[in-house]
Write a structure and sequence with these properties.
With about 130 residues, this protein is of the alpha+beta class. It has one domain (about 25-130): Beta Barrel (Lipocalin). It is built from 2 helices and 10 strands. It has helices spanning about 1-20, 95-105, and strands spanning about 30-35, 40, 50, 55-60, 65-75, 75-80, 85, 110-115, 115-120, 125-130. Strands 1, 2, 3, 4, 5, 6, 7, 8, 9 and 10 form a 10-stranded antiparallel β-sheet that branches. The chain is globular and about 40 Å long. It holds the Pfam family META. It comes from Leeuwenhoekiella nanhaiensis. InterPro entries: DUF306_Meta_HslJ, HslJ-like_sf, Hsp_HslJ-like.
Length: about 130
């Protein structure tokens, strides 16, 4: 009987010690305004990314269209699924929105420091920067 309690105690201690209390372990959280895609500034376009870490979903506004997607975080790695978006006609923003959705698809890691989110591709090239709202 003592052996069973000893095993249960060890398992309980191990389980509690493995649970992370670090907010960043869930990845980015909250609302961000996109500042740049690759080296192109888009700060005047009011593009947004809203992260819901509890259910692994994002949504927001591109140049003309609303969108949503899912994502998975593991450490500093991040992977987005293809975005679903509305199909509003947007002559001035079509290329920007395409580049935005491609940046999300090609993202493989992220850095979040002082309210600035940076997404990187597999070669560590900057794909997107955004500022926390």
């Amino acid at each position: 009987m003592k052996a069973i309690w000893a095993v249960l105690t060890v398992l309980l201690v191990f389980t509690v010690s493995c649970k992370s209390t670090d907010k960043n372990s869930l990845g980015p959280q909250g609302s961000f305004e996109v500042q740049s895609i690759k080296k192109d500034s888009v700060a005047d376009k009011e593009m947004t990314i809203n992260f819901n870490a509890e259910n692994g979903q994002i949504n927001g506004k591109g140049v003309c269209n609303s969108y949503s997607s899912t994502y998975v975080v593991s450490g500093t790695n991040i992977k987005f699924s293809p975005a679903m978006s509305t199909k509003m006609m947007c002559p001035e923003g079509t290329t920007l929105e395409y580049n935005f959705f491609q940046a999300l698809l090609n993202a493989s890691s992220y850095k979040l420091k002082r309210g600035k989110l940076t997404l990187f591709d597999a070669d560590e090239a900057v794909l997107l920067t955004a500022s926390e709202n």
